[in-house]
Design a protein that fits this description.
The protein is built from 11 helices and 21 strands. The chain is of the alpha+beta class. The strands form 6 sheets. Strands 1-2-3-18-6-21-4 form a 7-stranded mixed β-sheet. A 4-stranded antiparallel β-sheet has the order 5-19-8-17.
């Protein structure tokens, strides 16, 4: 009689890279390891993966058979980090478990520009966890950029002005009376972001995060706040470009969609680029104080079109985009690496979790 051992062997990792940028570093098991052995390995080998995360900025875990949001949550919890359950960002998200959300419910044709998650907050997440529950058959890549490299390469004059003045954000939100969950220009409603319709509670949360609120009309809300624009890593001591300029500035979506058209060369991407160019041109005939999302220097000085183009080009010149495979998990050091989303076709379900 042969007795087979039921003890699972620890995963043996093969570490590789998908591009010359070495972003992300890829961990793949060579011995058929599953989600349970992965979670166990993460818990017992914190020093190794934390070292790689600090060095490269992102780790892609591939081939461990994760299927569900709960599988993903178990891996994120295995890191022993305190996970967040309250999202003060702009994209509409659905909560699936205690600590797992859909990454974004924005339409598939619309790109998400490179950003460090919630960089406009005083205390943004330290780490992000993404899970490809279902990879799209075309597009939908999550591009990554090393924000430490962006900080070193950005135009010195832009850097000097940000260091002196900081950055001021403006975000407009519809409220419950609008009925619509989100629009192309304003994303989700303010009651979704604050997770309450109680205005005193909204104002309490806003005060804690140094948000200045301006109520207009029935229940429209504009939020203003300032940040430094750069951040020093709490453990590594490195400095990174850390702001939403390339996301919230009115000019960046047009720059982004034309770059995506050059990359994808599809009729849809061309149509989106032409339409967004026309809409943006019409919108810019108005006052920037009425823009749904906008960003200026901290004293209110506008970024020039040349400065915004320079910032976007710096990101695109150092961007690393990889194709998701279903079951992938991506860990990002949010103080070192930015992320975004390319337009896509087909079913795509990317889930997210983050440290508090």
């Amino acid at each position: 009689m042969v007795v087979r051992s039921t003890v699972k062997k620890p995963p043996i990792f093969e570490k590789t890279f998908l591009s010359q940028e070495k972003l992300p570093i890829v961990y793949q098991a060579r011995n058929g390891a599953d989600k349970d052995s992965l979670a166990n390995w993460i818990g017992k080998n914190e020093k190794e993966w934390q070292r790689d995360l600090g060095l490269y900025g992102a780790i892609l875990l591939r081939g461990f058979g994760l299927k569900t949001a709960l599988d993903f949550e178990a891996v994120a919890l295995a890191t022993k980090d305190k996970l967040g359950d309250f999202y003060l960002g702009t994209s509409p998200r659905d909560k699936l478990t205690d600590y797992v959300f859909t990454a974004s419910e924005l339409p598939p044709h619309y790109p998400i520009m490179q950003h460090a998650e919630m960089s406009f907050l005083d205390n943004p997440p330290k780490k992000l966890f993404f899970f490809a529950k279902q990879a799209s058959y075309y597009g939908g890549e999550t591009p990554l950029t090393d924000l430490r490299k962006v900080y070193n390469l950005i135009d010195p004059e832009i850097k000097k002005k940000i260091e002196a003045k900081g950055i001021r954000y403006q975000r407009k939100y519809d409220g419950p009376s609008s009925g619509s969950r989100f629009s192309l220009w304003k994303t989700k409603r303010w009651d979704e972001m604050f997770n309450t319709t109680n205005i005193p509670e909204v104002e309490k949360i806003a005060k804690k995060n140094r948000f200045e609120l301006k109520w207009e009309g029935a229940d429209s809300l504009t939020i203003f706040n300032k940040q430094s624009g750069f951040r020093k890593h709490p453990k590594l001591g490195t400095t990174a470009w850390h702001n939403h300029t390339q996301v919230f500035h009115f000019d960046t979506p047009v720059i982004e969609v034309w770059k995506i058209f050059k990359r994808q060369k599809t009729l849809r991407s061309l149509g989106v680029a032409l339409l967004l160019t026309a809409i943006t041109w019409l919108k810019k005939l108005g006052d920037s104080s009425n823009y749904a999302m906008h960003v200026t220097y901290g004293d209110g000085e506008e970024f020039t079109s040349k400065e915004i183009s320079t910032i976007c080009n710096t990101f695109w010149n150092n961007l690393s985009a990889f194709r998701w495979e279903s079951g992938d998990v991506l860990i990002i050091d949010n103080y070192s690496v930015s992320h975004g989303r390319m337009p896509f076709n087909g079913d795509r379900e990317i889930l997210v979790s983050w440290t508090a």
